[in-house]
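Hi Y.,

Following your request, here is the sequence exactly as I used it, all 120 residues.
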Amino acid sequence: MNPINLTLRFFLEVIALGAIGWWGWEQTSSWWRAPLAIALVLLTAMLWGTFAVPDDPSRGGNGLVQVPGIARLVLELLVFCSAAYALSTLGRPTLSIVFLSIVVFHYVWGYERVAWLIKQ
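Below is the corresponding structure, written out as tokens. Let me know if you'd prefer a different format.
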């Protein structure tokens, strides 16, 4: 996978975690806001890191649970779409659209990996 696209993917992952955490923070004004935001970020990061496709060139195939490529692709899209939804519900629809557009660009640019995941 192209190193520039891998870098883009890393930044998309970080933005997704930030958006999900921000959404969690804004769900309440009580003392639960920090634990909720942290829990959502940790849960998302754990899911992202736990499930891997064997020999995935973009991840080194490392992960506690080996899954088929399509399951990994669905997980990635679920995280990115959740982040876009979070941005939208936080009153940032333009940011949500820009984020999703960059996600689509990332997957189009990495079409070889997407095809590889679907075949696994």
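The radius of gyration is 15 Å.

Thanks again,
Q.
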